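The step that takes the researchers longest sounds almost clerical: writing a folded protein down as plain text. Below is the pair of lines this work produces for a single protein:

——
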Amino acid sequence: MVERLACDIEAQIERTSRYLRIFPKKGEDYIGMVTAEATGEYWTITDFVLSPEVRRIGLGSDLLQLMEQNIKDEGGKSLKIDLTDFSVDGIKLSSGLTELKKFLLRRGFTNSEEKPLLLSKGLNLEV
């Protein structure tokens, strides 16, 4: 499935019963990815990556909204992201985590009291 997003960007969506992957594409080039994994009705974002040249144009918000809508369509009740788990080839990512955390907090995610880098959001199932 392909969805049209901001600035002539398309998003290729791959969905199974347990995984949801969204790959934004500009022309022929992939410019990021957002993936989530389900445990029953509860979903966890496992990847949220955008190329620097397409940040701050609303694409991240569009992708998050698209992810949330697809998870709701699957009957998902909540979405969380654990920023302590973000790494590339085993190397923890610290660059950009502060920005990602601020971005998610502005979009309705809340901090866990016991784990400051665990953010979650309940998904209203009413459409």
In short: The mean pLDDT is 83. The chain has one domain: 2-122. Helices lie at 59-73, 97-106. The CA atoms of residues 5 and 62 lie 7 Å apart.
